[in-house]
Amino acid sequence: MARRLDTYLKQLLGDDQFDFYKVVRDFADEEIAPQVLAWEREHRLIPDECIAKMGEMGLFGLPIADEYGGQGGKHLDLLLMGLAISYHSQSAAITPGAAISLGAKPLQLFGTEDQKSAHLPDLAAGKRMFVFGLTEPGRGSDAANPEVTATRAGDSWIINGEKCWSTNARWASHVIVHALAHPDAPAGRTTTCFIVPMDAEGVHYQEMSGKKVWEQSSTGSIIFENVSVPGSAILGTEGEGFKVMVNTLNGGRLFIAALALGSLAFALDKCRIYAEERIQFGNQPIGRFQRVQDVIVDMDIALERNLTWLIHCCDLYDKGHLSREQAAKVKVDSSRCASDLLVLAMEVCGGVACLDEFGLIRHHNDLFVTRVGEGSNFTLKGLIARPLREV
Protein backbone atom coordinates (compact mmCIF):
# COMPACT_ATOMS: atom_id res chain seq x y z
CA MET A 1 0.00 0.00 0.00
CA ALA A 2 1.44 3.36 -1.04
CA ARG A 3 2.34 5.83 1.69
CA ARG A 4 0.07 8.84 1.94
CA LEU A 5 3.17 10.93 2.65
CA ASP A 6 4.54 10.02 -0.78
CA THR A 7 1.23 10.89 -2.44
CA TYR A 8 1.25 14.43 -1.05
CA LEU A 9 4.97 15.06 -1.54
CA LYS A 10 4.73 14.06 -5.18
CA GLN A 11 2.12 16.80 -5.64
CA LEU A 12 4.09 19.42 -3.74
CA LEU A 13 7.64 18.85 -5.03
CA GLY A 14 9.52 19.09 -8.28
CA ASP A 15 10.82 15.88 -9.86
CA ASP A 16 14.39 16.32 -8.62
CA GLN A 17 13.26 17.00 -5.06
CA PHE A 18 10.93 14.01 -5.04
CA ASP A 19 13.66 11.77 -6.46
CA PHE A 20 15.96 12.88 -3.64
CA TYR A 21 13.26 12.11 -1.08
CA LYS A 22 12.83 8.62 -2.55
CA VAL A 23 16.57 7.90 -2.28
CA VAL A 24 16.56 8.77 1.43
CA ARG A 25 13.26 6.93 1.95
CA ASP A 26 14.71 3.77 0.44
CA PHE A 27 17.83 4.10 2.58
CA ALA A 28 15.67 4.40 5.70
CA ASP A 29 13.59 1.38 4.64
CA GLU A 30 16.67 -0.76 4.07
CA GLU A 31 19.13 0.42 6.74
CA ILE A 32 17.06 1.80 9.62
CA ALA A 33 13.63 0.14 9.66
CA PRO A 34 14.97 -3.44 9.99
CA GLN A 35 17.29 -2.51 12.87
CA VAL A 36 15.52 0.11 14.94
CA LEU A 37 13.67 -2.39 17.16
CA ALA A 38 16.91 -4.16 18.06
CA TRP A 39 18.56 -0.82 18.83
CA GLU A 40 15.69 -0.01 21.18
CA ARG A 41 15.69 -3.34 22.97
CA GLU A 42 19.48 -3.27 23.36
CA HIS A 43 19.39 0.38 24.51
CA ARG A 44 21.89 1.38 21.83
CA LEU A 45 22.52 4.77 20.32
CA ILE A 46 22.51 5.03 16.53
CA PRO A 47 25.50 2.84 15.55
CA ASP A 48 28.57 4.53 14.14
CA GLU A 49 28.30 2.48 10.96
CA CYS A 50 24.82 3.85 10.29
CA ILE A 51 26.06 7.40 10.83
CA ALA A 52 28.95 6.68 8.46
CA LYS A 53 26.53 5.51 5.76
CA MET A 54 24.52 8.71 6.13
CA GLY A 55 27.75 10.64 5.79
CA GLU A 56 28.66 8.73 2.61
CA MET A 57 25.26 9.67 1.18
CA GLY A 58 26.02 13.34 1.82
CA LEU A 59 23.15 13.79 4.28
CA PHE A 60 25.28 15.81 6.70
CA GLY A 61 26.16 18.30 3.98
CA LEU A 62 22.78 18.86 2.36
CA PRO A 63 22.58 22.69 2.65
CA ILE A 64 26.34 23.30 2.91
CA ALA A 65 27.90 25.07 -0.07
CA ASP A 66 29.82 23.08 -2.68
CA GLU A 67 33.00 25.00 -1.95
CA TYR A 68 33.05 23.50 1.55
CA GLY A 69 32.32 19.95 0.39
CA GLY A 70 28.55 20.07 0.83
CA GLN A 71 25.68 19.36 -1.53
CA GLY A 72 24.76 23.01 -2.03
CA GLY A 73 21.08 22.27 -1.46
CA LYS A 74 18.27 24.18 0.19
CA HIS A 75 16.69 23.90 3.62
CA LEU A 76 13.90 21.90 1.99
CA ASP A 77 16.38 19.09 1.30
CA LEU A 78 17.01 18.88 5.03
CA LEU A 79 13.30 18.67 5.76
CA LEU A 80 12.77 15.96 3.14
CA MET A 81 15.53 13.93 4.75
CA GLY A 82 13.82 14.43 8.11
CA LEU A 83 10.46 13.29 6.77
CA ALA A 84 11.91 10.21 5.10
CA ILE A 85 13.90 8.98 8.11
CA SER A 86 11.56 10.02 10.93
CA TYR A 87 8.85 7.88 9.33
CA HIS A 88 10.72 5.03 11.02
CA SER A 89 12.75 6.76 13.73
CA GLN A 90 12.97 10.35 14.94
CA SER A 91 16.18 9.39 16.75
CA ALA A 92 17.83 8.46 13.47
CA ALA A 93 16.51 11.57 11.72
CA ILE A 94 17.58 14.05 14.38
CA THR A 95 21.18 12.82 14.28
CA PRO A 96 22.04 14.39 10.89
CA GLY A 97 19.21 16.91 11.35
CA ALA A 98 20.62 18.51 14.49
CA ALA A 99 24.16 18.20 13.14
CA ILE A 100 23.06 20.48 10.30
CA SER A 101 20.38 22.80 11.69
CA LEU A 102 21.97 23.29 15.13
CA GLY A 103 25.61 22.59 14.32
CA ALA A 104 26.66 23.52 10.80
CA LYS A 105 23.91 26.07 10.08
CA PRO A 106 25.00 28.72 12.61
CA LEU A 107 28.56 28.35 11.32
CA GLN A 108 27.29 28.86 7.77
CA LEU A 109 25.31 31.94 8.74
CA PHE A 110 27.73 33.67 11.08
CA GLY A 111 31.16 32.04 10.81
CA THR A 112 34.28 33.78 9.54
CA GLU A 113 35.96 32.42 6.44
CA ASP A 114 38.66 30.84 8.62
CA GLN A 115 36.03 29.15 10.79
CA LYS A 116 34.11 27.84 7.78
CA SER A 117 37.23 26.54 6.06
CA ALA A 118 38.42 24.84 9.23
CA HIS A 119 35.20 23.03 10.06
CA LEU A 120 32.57 22.85 7.30
CA PRO A 121 34.31 20.26 5.08
CA ASP A 122 34.46 17.69 7.89
CA LEU A 123 30.95 18.58 9.05
CA ALA A 124 29.59 18.16 5.52
CA ALA A 125 31.23 14.73 5.26
CA GLY A 126 29.83 13.59 8.60
CA LYS A 127 33.34 13.06 9.93
CA ARG A 128 32.67 15.44 12.82
CA MET A 129 29.64 17.14 14.36
CA PHE A 130 29.00 20.40 16.15
CA VAL A 131 26.49 20.53 19.01
CA PHE A 132 24.61 23.70 19.98
CA GLY A 133 24.84 24.38 23.73
CA LEU A 134 21.62 26.24 24.51
CA THR A 135 19.43 24.62 27.17
CA GLU A 136 20.61 24.72 30.79
CA PRO A 137 19.44 23.07 34.02
CA GLY A 138 17.88 26.39 35.06
CA ARG A 139 17.06 27.70 31.59
CA GLY A 140 14.80 25.95 29.12
CA SER A 141 12.63 28.10 26.89
CA ASP A 142 14.15 31.22 28.50
CA ALA A 143 17.27 30.60 26.44
CA ALA A 144 17.82 34.31 25.81
CA ASN A 145 19.07 34.68 29.40
CA PRO A 146 21.72 32.00 29.90
CA GLU A 147 23.35 31.27 33.24
CA VAL A 148 26.52 30.05 31.55
CA THR A 149 28.95 32.97 31.62
CA ALA A 150 31.85 34.12 29.47
CA THR A 151 34.24 36.57 31.13
CA ARG A 152 36.91 38.45 29.23
CA ALA A 153 40.50 37.77 30.35
CA GLY A 154 42.85 39.82 28.19
CA ASP A 155 42.57 38.47 24.64
CA SER A 156 40.75 35.36 25.87
CA TRP A 157 37.41 34.45 27.42
CA ILE A 158 36.73 32.19 30.41
CA ILE A 159 33.54 30.11 30.20
CA ASN A 160 31.77 28.58 33.20
CA GLY A 161 28.48 26.77 33.65
CA GLU A 162 26.50 23.83 32.30
CA LYS A 163 24.49 23.05 29.19
CA CYS A 164 22.12 20.09 29.04
CA TRP A 165 19.78 18.33 26.58
CA SER A 166 22.50 18.83 23.98
CA THR A 167 21.67 16.66 20.96
CA ASN A 168 24.59 14.75 19.38
CA ALA A 169 26.93 15.52 22.28
CA ARG A 170 28.32 11.97 22.15
CA TRP A 171 29.71 12.54 18.65
CA ALA A 172 30.51 16.27 18.82
CA SER A 173 33.99 17.64 18.19
CA HIS A 174 32.94 21.17 19.20
CA VAL A 175 30.10 22.82 21.07
CA ILE A 176 28.67 26.24 20.18
CA VAL A 177 28.13 27.86 23.57
CA HIS A 178 25.53 30.60 24.01
CA ALA A 179 26.83 32.51 27.04
CA LEU A 180 26.13 35.63 29.07
CA ALA A 181 29.11 37.82 28.21
CA HIS A 182 27.84 41.40 28.56
CA PRO A 183 25.42 41.53 31.52
CA ASP A 184 25.21 45.32 31.49
CA ALA A 185 24.41 45.64 27.79
CA PRO A 186 20.91 46.44 26.50
CA ALA A 187 18.44 43.59 26.11
CA GLY A 188 19.26 41.44 23.12
CA ARG A 189 22.97 42.34 23.29
CA THR A 190 24.01 40.56 26.48
CA THR A 191 25.12 37.25 25.00
CA THR A 192 27.81 35.95 22.67
CA CYS A 193 28.33 32.55 21.05
CA PHE A 194 31.67 30.73 21.20
CA ILE A 195 33.01 27.68 19.35
CA VAL A 196 34.56 25.47 22.02
CA PRO A 197 36.42 22.16 21.38
CA MET A 198 34.91 19.30 23.33
CA ASP A 199 38.41 18.14 24.25
CA ALA A 200 39.42 21.54 25.68
CA GLU A 201 40.69 21.56 29.26
CA GLY A 202 37.77 22.06 31.65
CA VAL A 203 35.07 20.67 29.32
CA HIS A 204 33.28 17.63 30.76
CA TYR A 205 30.60 15.65 28.89
CA GLN A 206 28.22 13.06 30.27
CA GLU A 207 25.44 11.23 28.42
CA MET A 208 22.10 11.92 30.12
CA SER A 209 20.57 8.72 31.51
CA GLY A 210 16.95 7.67 31.99
CA LYS A 211 15.69 9.35 28.81
CA LYS A 212 12.61 7.66 27.30
CA VAL A 213 12.35 9.84 24.21
CA TRP A 214 14.68 9.86 21.19
CA GLU A 215 16.33 6.88 22.88
CA GLN A 216 18.77 6.21 20.03
CA SER A 217 19.86 9.86 19.87
CA SER A 218 22.76 11.11 21.97
CA THR A 219 21.70 13.71 24.54
CA GLY A 220 24.45 15.06 26.74
CA SER A 221 25.17 17.35 29.64
CA ILE A 222 28.27 19.52 29.07
CA ILE A 223 30.00 21.28 31.97
CA PHE A 224 32.49 24.14 31.53
CA GLU A 225 34.97 24.77 34.36
CA ASN A 226 37.13 27.82 33.69
CA VAL A 227 37.41 26.94 30.01
CA SER A 228 39.68 29.39 28.22
CA VAL A 229 39.06 30.20 24.55
CA PRO A 230 40.66 32.85 22.31
CA GLY A 231 38.77 35.77 20.82
CA SER A 232 38.83 33.94 17.47
CA ALA A 233 36.40 31.41 18.97
CA ILE A 234 33.56 33.94 18.86
CA LEU A 235 30.85 32.98 16.37
CA GLY A 236 29.43 36.12 14.83
CA THR A 237 30.31 39.26 16.74
CA GLU A 238 30.32 40.17 20.41
CA GLY A 239 26.84 40.79 21.72
CA GLU A 240 25.29 38.96 18.76
CA GLY A 241 24.54 35.70 20.59
CA PHE A 242 20.78 36.29 20.62
CA LYS A 243 20.78 36.90 16.86
CA VAL A 244 22.75 33.69 16.25
CA MET A 245 20.34 31.76 18.46
CA VAL A 246 17.16 33.13 16.84
CA ASN A 247 18.32 32.47 13.30
CA THR A 248 19.44 28.98 14.25
CA LEU A 249 16.15 28.10 15.94
CA ASN A 250 13.99 29.36 13.09
CA GLY A 251 15.33 26.68 10.76
CA GLY A 252 15.42 24.14 13.58
CA ARG A 253 11.72 24.62 14.29
CA LEU A 254 10.90 23.75 10.71
CA PHE A 255 12.90 20.54 11.08
CA ILE A 256 11.09 19.67 14.32
CA ALA A 257 7.79 20.14 12.47
CA ALA A 258 9.05 17.74 9.78
CA LEU A 259 9.86 15.12 12.44
CA ALA A 260 6.33 15.42 13.83
CA LEU A 261 4.82 14.97 10.38
CA GLY A 262 7.05 11.98 9.66
CA SER A 263 5.66 10.30 12.78
CA LEU A 264 2.11 11.29 11.81
CA ALA A 265 2.62 9.78 8.35
CA PHE A 266 3.77 6.48 9.88
CA ALA A 267 0.81 6.42 12.28
CA LEU A 268 -1.65 7.15 9.49
CA ASP A 269 -0.42 4.26 7.35
CA LYS A 270 -0.18 1.88 10.30
CA CYS A 271 -3.68 2.72 11.51
CA ARG A 272 -5.46 2.64 8.16
CA ILE A 273 -3.87 -0.70 7.20
CA TYR A 274 -4.65 -2.23 10.59
CA ALA A 275 -8.25 -0.98 10.39
CA GLU A 276 -8.78 -2.96 7.18
CA GLU A 277 -7.10 -6.09 8.50
CA ARG A 278 -8.76 -6.18 11.93
CA ILE A 279 -12.01 -8.15 11.64
CA GLN A 280 -14.63 -7.71 14.38
CA PHE A 281 -18.39 -7.37 14.99
CA GLY A 282 -19.97 -9.60 12.41
CA ASN A 283 -16.93 -10.36 10.28
CA GLN A 284 -16.32 -6.75 9.27
CA PRO A 285 -13.08 -4.74 9.16
CA ILE A 286 -13.17 -2.03 11.80
CA GLY A 287 -12.28 0.45 9.05
CA ARG A 288 -15.96 0.35 8.06
CA PHE A 289 -17.02 2.05 11.29
CA GLN A 290 -17.45 5.81 11.25
CA ARG A 291 -15.60 6.50 14.48
CA VAL A 292 -12.54 4.71 13.14
CA GLN A 293 -12.85 6.51 9.83
CA ASP A 294 -13.06 9.86 11.66
CA VAL A 295 -9.65 9.30 13.23
CA ILE A 296 -8.04 8.19 9.98
CA VAL A 297 -9.56 11.05 7.97
CA ASP A 298 -8.47 13.63 10.57
CA MET A 299 -4.92 12.27 10.38
CA ASP A 300 -4.96 12.44 6.60
CA ILE A 301 -6.27 16.02 6.58
CA ALA A 302 -3.65 17.13 9.13
CA LEU A 303 -0.84 15.52 7.15
CA GLU A 304 -1.76 17.13 3.83
CA ARG A 305 -2.46 20.53 5.40
CA ASN A 306 0.70 20.75 7.46
CA LEU A 307 2.98 19.38 4.75
CA THR A 308 1.73 22.08 2.41
CA TRP A 309 2.20 24.73 5.08
CA LEU A 310 5.65 23.47 6.08
CA ILE A 311 6.97 23.48 2.52
CA HIS A 312 5.65 27.03 2.05
CA CYS A 313 7.46 28.13 5.24
CA CYS A 314 10.62 26.43 4.05
CA ASP A 315 10.48 28.40 0.82
CA LEU A 316 10.18 31.61 2.84
CA TYR A 317 13.12 30.53 5.01
CA ASP A 318 15.36 29.92 1.99
CA LYS A 319 14.42 33.37 0.68
CA GLY A 320 15.16 34.99 4.04
CA HIS A 321 11.55 36.02 4.61
CA LEU A 322 10.39 33.61 7.33
CA SER A 323 9.41 35.37 10.56
CA ARG A 324 9.87 33.92 14.04
CA GLU A 325 6.10 33.79 14.42
CA GLN A 326 5.62 31.79 11.21
CA ALA A 327 8.26 29.23 12.18
CA ALA A 328 6.72 28.94 15.63
CA LYS A 329 3.19 28.47 14.27
CA VAL A 330 3.99 25.58 11.97
CA LYS A 331 6.08 23.88 14.65
CA VAL A 332 3.35 24.26 17.30
CA ASP A 333 0.52 23.06 15.08
CA SER A 334 2.42 20.16 13.50
CA SER A 335 3.64 18.81 16.83
CA ARG A 336 0.28 19.25 18.54
CA CYS A 337 -1.79 17.68 15.75
CA ALA A 338 0.59 14.77 15.30
CA SER A 339 0.83 13.86 18.97
CA ASP A 340 -2.90 14.29 19.69
CA LEU A 341 -3.95 12.27 16.64
CA LEU A 342 -1.41 9.53 17.26
CA VAL A 343 -3.00 8.83 20.65
CA LEU A 344 -6.35 8.35 18.88
CA ALA A 345 -4.66 6.07 16.35
CA MET A 346 -3.39 3.96 19.23
CA GLU A 347 -6.93 3.72 20.59
CA VAL A 348 -8.14 2.48 17.21
CA CYS A 349 -5.46 -0.22 17.16
CA GLY A 350 -6.02 -1.20 20.79
CA GLY A 351 -3.59 -3.22 22.89
CA VAL A 352 -1.27 -4.08 20.01
CA ALA A 353 -0.34 -0.39 19.85
CA CYS A 354 1.48 -0.78 23.17
CA LEU A 355 3.95 -3.31 21.71
CA ASP A 356 7.32 -1.95 20.66
CA GLU A 357 7.34 -4.03 17.47
CA PHE A 358 4.12 -2.34 16.27
CA GLY A 359 5.95 1.00 16.21
CA LEU A 360 3.30 3.44 17.42
CA ILE A 361 4.58 3.63 20.99
CA ARG A 362 7.99 4.74 19.70
CA HIS A 363 6.42 7.63 17.81
CA HIS A 364 4.12 8.42 20.74
CA ASN A 365 7.11 8.94 23.02
CA ASP A 366 9.20 10.81 20.47
CA LEU A 367 6.38 13.20 19.55
CA PHE A 368 6.57 14.64 23.06
CA VAL A 369 9.98 16.07 22.15
CA THR A 370 8.47 17.92 19.20
CA ARG A 371 6.13 19.71 21.60
CA VAL A 372 8.95 20.98 23.84
CA GLY A 373 12.03 20.96 21.60
CA GLU A 374 13.30 24.18 19.96
CA GLY A 375 11.12 26.12 22.40
CA SER A 376 8.12 24.64 24.20
CA ASN A 377 4.75 25.13 22.55
CA PHE A 378 3.51 27.10 25.56
CA THR A 379 6.37 29.57 25.25
CA LEU A 380 6.09 29.80 21.46
CA LYS A 381 2.41 30.65 21.75
CA GLY A 382 3.44 33.69 23.76
CA LEU A 383 5.74 34.70 20.89
CA ILE A 384 2.95 34.13 18.36
CA ALA A 385 0.55 36.25 20.42
CA ARG A 386 2.70 39.39 20.42
CA PRO A 387 1.72 40.74 16.99
CA LEU A 388 -1.90 39.80 17.70
CA ARG A 389 -1.91 42.19 20.66
CA GLU A 390 -0.86 45.13 18.51
CA VAL A 391 -3.81 47.46 18.00
Number of helices: 12
N-to-C series of helices and strands: HHHHHHHEEEEEEEEHEEHHHH
CA-atom Rg in angstroms: 21 Å
Low-pLDDT runs: none
Per CATH, the superfamily of the largest domain is Butyryl-CoA Dehydrogenase, subunit A, domain 3
Helix-and-strand structural type:
alpha+beta
In the CATH classification, which architecture of the largest domain applies?
Up-down Bundle
Main sheet properties: 4 strands, mixed
**Strand fraction:** 15-25%
Kindly report how far apart the N and C termini lie. Answer: 51 Å
Principal-axis shape? globular
What is the residue-mean pLDDT, rounded to a whole number? 94
> What order do the strands of the largest sheet run in, or round the barrel if closed?
1-4-5-8
Task: Describe the protein.
The structure is a single chain. By secondary structure, the protein is of the alpha+beta class. It folds into three domains: about 5-130, Orthogonal Bundle (Butyryl-Coa Dehydrogenase, subunit A, domain 1); about 130-240, Butyryl-CoA Dehydrogenase, subunit A, domain 2 (Beta Barrel), CATH 2.40.110.10; about 245-390, Butyryl-CoA Dehydrogenase, subunit A, domain 3 (Up-down Bundle), CATH 1.20.140.10. It is about 50% helix and about 15% strand. The chain is built from twelve helices and ten strands. The chain has helices spanning about 5-10, 15-30, 35-40, 50-55, 75-85, 90-110, 115-125, 240-275, 290-320, 325-350, 360-370, 375-385; strands at about 130-135, 150-155, 155-165, 170-180, 190-195, 205, 220-230, 235, 280, 285. It has a four-stranded mixed beta sheet with strand order 1-4-5-8. A four-stranded antiparallel beta sheet has the order 2-3-7-6, with helices on one face. A two-stranded antiparallel sheet has the order 9-10. A hairpin with a 3-residue loop joins strand 9 (about 280) and strand 10 (about 285). The longest helix is centred in the middle third of the chain and has 37 residues, at about 240-275. The mean pLDDT is about 95.
